[in-house]
Write a structure and sequence with these properties.
Layout (H helix, E strand, L loop, with lengths): L19 H11 L3 H13 L12 H13 L4 H20 L7 E3 L8 H11 L2 E3 L7 H10 L2
Parallel strand pairs: 1-2
Length: 148
């Protein structure tokens, strides 16, 4: 933001990759409540990081990878961390289209997931601001703009 106005923004408009819906589907595949994924990801990081990589951000293919990793008896929290790393890679790729300052604001439902925010912070190397209610930021901005 500059002077109270958004300078620029980017959002994913092609598929569910890197979105809350992507994480909802992965939570179902892992049989882990969505609300617990961030906490589990942070626990995996504290326990030594991630050796697992999720190579697909396509929801269908990533879900197949998750099922395969579960079949291989990989720890759920490490799979969750790998998913968060994949989401952070996707978001960082979009954010990389713009020159980044020392801090950026992450909005939308994914911002409520501390695991994703932690991975993104590490990936971008900038401070990640998360609004108190990140899910309504877009609607609030539209309402402010509409009000003149």
């Amino acid at each position: 933001m500059r002077g109270g106005f958004v300078k620029d923004f980017v959002m994913n408009d092609r598929c569910a990759a890197g979105t809350g819906r992507f994480l909802e589907i992965m939570a179902q595949a892992l049989e882990v409540p969505l609300e617990e994924m961030g906490r589990e990801s942070l626990r995996a990081r504290r326990a030594g990081g991630v050796a697992i990589r999720i190579s697909n951000t396509c929801t269908v293919f990533a879900e197949s990878e998750v099922v395969s990793l579960l079949t291989q008896r990989k720890p759920r929290r490490e799979i969750i961390l790998a998913l968060h790393e994949a989401v952070a890679d996707r978001i960082a790729g979009m954010a990389g289209r713009f020159p980044l300052g020392r801090e950026v604001t992450l909005s939308g439902g994914v911002a409520k997931n501390r695991g994703v925010a932690d991975c993104l912070d590490r990936r971008l190397g900038v401070r990640i601001n998360i609004p108190p209610e990140p899910r309504i930021v877009g609607a609030l901005g539209a309402a402010i703009l509409a009000g003149g």
